[in-house]
């Protein structure tokens, strides 16, 4: 049975101070957020994922969004360097955790910047958002690490959202999905399917036909069910107030030793 681990990190007590860039700030209920995070982690476990909790970073308000700290391709980890300087300390414990798990660890060095939320993998293709958090130098460093492993790196311009995966993710068959008003160039993707709700743009592939997605996108969940998929809905409303989505809260690790 393939190894399926999901890296997670519990919310900081300072979560409500997290950065917002493209939406208005709203009050965040930290207790409700913790309950939602626990339910999210439980959903991963119920669908066959072993959760690995990296050390908390209580002084980093955004640290629950662990996806931004690293990009994985097979068993190779590229530790990110966020375009938001306040988020850079988040990577230390993640790097240590991945090294313990046996990953080959690489780093993005300045002046390059890269957030993991800007990276969407579809098969051997790695789409990388070029926007507020990831620059051209960071994309070039990602290319240097992953292209020798067989990846094809495709830069994607971003102007309407924080991260690429704030706009698009992909279904198991490789179809890229997104809420069209927030996608700069849908034609960049060989197969693109618009969804009716912004939160419906984000899915985590749990295996088989199961899609982890936000409860705030019921119309999109119905659409995916009609297509033969099995939506697994979780309430992440407190994290959505901070531009978070279902992908942000974990890093999925597969076949680390293959």
Labels describing this entry:
alpha/beta, 25% strand, 6 helices, 21% helix, single chain, 258 residues, L-arginine/glycine Amidinotransferase, Chain A
Protein architecture, described:
This protein is of the alpha/beta class and 258 residues long. The chain has one domain (4-15, 22-254): L-arginine/glycine Amidinotransferase, Chain A (5-stranded Propeller), CATH 3.75.10.10. The chain is 21% helix and 25% strand. It is built from six helices and 15 strands. The chain has helices at residues 30-46, 91-100, 136-146, 164-167, 218-226, 237-240, and strands at 4-8, 50-53, 70-73, 76-79, 104-107, 119-122, 125-130, 152-157, 168-170, 176-178, 192-194, 204-207, 210-214, 230-234, 251-254. Strands 2-1-15 form a three-stranded mixed beta sheet, with helices on one face. Strand 9 (168-170) and strand 10 form a beta hairpin. The longest helix is centred in the N-terminal third of the chain and has 17 residues, at 30-46. The radius of gyration is 17 Å and the shape is globular. The protein starts with a strand and ends with a strand. The model has no long low-confidence stretch (mean pLDDT 95).
Concise summary:
With 258 residues, this protein is an alpha/beta fold. It contains six helices and 15 strands.
Question: Which helices and strands appear, and what pairs or packs with what?
Answer:
Layout: E1 4-8, H1 30-46, E2 50-53, E3 70-73, E4 76-79, H2 91-100, E5 104-107, E6 119-122, E7 125-130, H3 136-146, E8 152-157, H4 164-167, E9 168-170, E10 176-178, E11 192-194, E12 204-207, E13 210-214, H5 218-226, E14 230-234, H6 237-240, E15 251-254
């Amino acid at each position: 049975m393939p190894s399926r681990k999901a890296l997670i990190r519990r919310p900081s007590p300072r979560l409500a101070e997290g950065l917002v860039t493209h939406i208005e700030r709203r009050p965040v209920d930290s207790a409700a957020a913790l309950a939602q995070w626990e339910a999210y982690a439980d959903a991963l476990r119920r669908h066959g994922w072993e959760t690995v909790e990296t050390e908390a970073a209580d002084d980093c308000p955004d640290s629950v969004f662990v996806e931004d700290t690293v990009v994985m391709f097979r068993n190779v980890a590229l530790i990110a360097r966020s375009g938001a300087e306040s988020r850079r300390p988040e990577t230390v414990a993640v790097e240590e955790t991945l090294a313990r798990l046996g990953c080959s660890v690489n780093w993005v060095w300045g002046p390059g910047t890269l957030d993991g939320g800007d990276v969407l993998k579809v098969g051997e293709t790695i789409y990388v958002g070029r926007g507020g958090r990831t620059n051209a130098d960071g994309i070039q460093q990602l290319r240097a690490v992953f292209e020798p492993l067989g990846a094809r790196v495709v830069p994607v311009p971003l102007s309407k959202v924080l991260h690429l995966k704030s706009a698009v993710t992909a279904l198991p068959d490789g179809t890229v999905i997104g809420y069209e008003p927030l996608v700069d160039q849908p034609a960049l993707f060989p197969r693109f399917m618009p969804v009716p709700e912004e939160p419906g743009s984000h899915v985590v592939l749990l295996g088989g036909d199961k899609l982890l997605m936000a409860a705030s996108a019921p119309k999109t969940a119905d659409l995916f069910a009609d297509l033969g998929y099995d939506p697994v809905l979780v309430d992440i409303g407190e994290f959505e107030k901070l531009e978070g989505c279902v992908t942000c809260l974990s890093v999925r690790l597969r076949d680390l030793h293959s």
